[in-house]
Design goal:
Blueprint lengths: L24 H23 E5 L14 E5 L13 E5 L7 E8 L4 E5 L2 E4 L2 E2 L15 E5 L4 E5 L9 H4 L2 E2 L3 E10 L5 E2 L2
Antiparallel strand pairs: 1-2, 2-11, 3-4, 3-11, 4-9, 5-6, 5-8, 6-7, 9-10, 11-12
Length: 191
């Protein structure tokens, strides 16, 4: 019987080296860094902004030098409500930002008798204002104008708020206090 050569598998073709070389490691890192910075900038500009609380007007909930994230997008999806803790440009000096709690919305009748807040003639239950932080100041009845909000600090005896500068126009409000992240023992949702 004659020898029959068994069929050999085809030899794979060796690809020629392409002229384009992979990016050096530094260029890959630079690209990743730029993408990360772009994503961070988008989040900070349009969604969440880190801010530092300066002052004691929102104690005991928010303390001086505490760091929080402000949700800058939420009020495009839902209305500002009573009880929200908002960050806004100070009406008398828009270069400064304030943080306060919304007590009244447009059309509400607000008055304060001896420290007790009334909204539409109903006493407001404010469990976020401990007795040590309340004050006995009174404020005559006012109706919150259209597109405005009546805001108060939780530390009533130490707060510069709507009792002093009047209701805040919604155009000055740029976010809702969402989440505290520093100090670590205060980490969590802002209430």
């Amino acid at each position: 019987m004659p020898d029959v050569a068994s069929p050999q598998p085809p030899i794979p073709a060796v690809p020629k080296e392409s002229a384009a070389h992979p990016l050096p490691v530094v260029a890959v890192w630079a690209r990743d860094l730029l993408v990360s910075l772009a994503i961070s900038a988008f989040i900070i500009i349009f969604l969440y902004q880190p801010v530092k609380v300066e002052g004691t007007s929102m104690m005991p909930g928010l303390e001086d030098q505490e760091r929080i994230f402000v949700n800058k997008f939420v009020y495009r999806l839902e209305p500002i409500e009573r009880g929200d803790v908002v960050v806004f440009r100070y009406p008398r000096d828009p270069s400064k930002s304030y943080i306060k709690r919304v007590i009244g919305v447009a059309g509400d009748r607000i008055r304060i008798d001896g420290g007790q807040v009334y909204v539409n003639d109903e006493a407001l239950d404010e469990d976020y204002v401990p007795p040590a932080y309340s004050d006995a100041r009174s404020y005559g009845e006012t109706i919150v104008p259209e597109h405005s909000y009546f805001v108060l600090g939780d530390h009533r005896s130490m707060s510069n708020d709507s009792r002093d500068f009047g209701p805040v126009n919604q155009n000055y409000i740029y976010g809702k206090a969402a989440f505290g992240y520093w100090p670590m023992d205060k980490m969590g949702r802002v209430r």
